[in-house]
Every structure is written in structure tokens, then in C-alpha cells.
Amino acid sequence: MPRRHTNQKAIRPLPILNKSVCSQKNRHPTKQQALQAVENQEMSNPQLKLDAYHCGHCRGWHLTNRR
Which domain holds residue 64? Predict the structure, then answer.
């Protein structure tokens, strides 16, 4: 008998094609580490306005200049 309350989207692996985009970016394992990287980057260059976002492809955190 199948389980009724399993989230099939969470179980499915993500497409491999999208991982190539993430391989070109720095990956931070936690949000706190990503925010620390944002702070370090902004301190070295005050003109930068960065933010961290959670990546659904690699399950890590990346930096972006989009708010």
C-alpha cells in the first residue's frame, strides 16, 4: 500500500543539467557562512550590495547582487 503523505517532489533527484551552473559559483554549506561571505565582500568593496540565497539545485547557498 503506498504512503499517502510523502512529498514526491522532495524525493526526486534534480536534473543534472542545472548542476553545471552551480559548479561555476562558490557554494556555502550554511546560510550563516554565506552571510559571513557577504559581509567580508562588502567590507572589502563598499560599493557592492550582496545577498545570499538558497540554491535548489545543489542545496547550498550562493551570493547574488540581486535583492
Answer: 26-67
Q: Over the stretch 22-66, which tens digit does the pLDDT of each residue have?
A: 888 899 999 999 999 999 999 999 999 999 999 988 889 999 998
In a domain, 63, yes or no: yes
With contact defined as beta carbons under 8 Å apart, do 40 and 49 qualify? no
- Number of structural domains found in the chain: 1
Q: Are 28 and 37 in contact (CB under 8 A)?
A: yes
Domain presence at residue 1: no
Where do the H-state alpha helices sit in the chain? 8-11, 19-22, 31-44
Any domain includes 56? yes
Sequence-distant (6+) residues with CB within 8 A of 52 are 28, 31, 34, 35, 37, 38, 61, 62, 63, 64
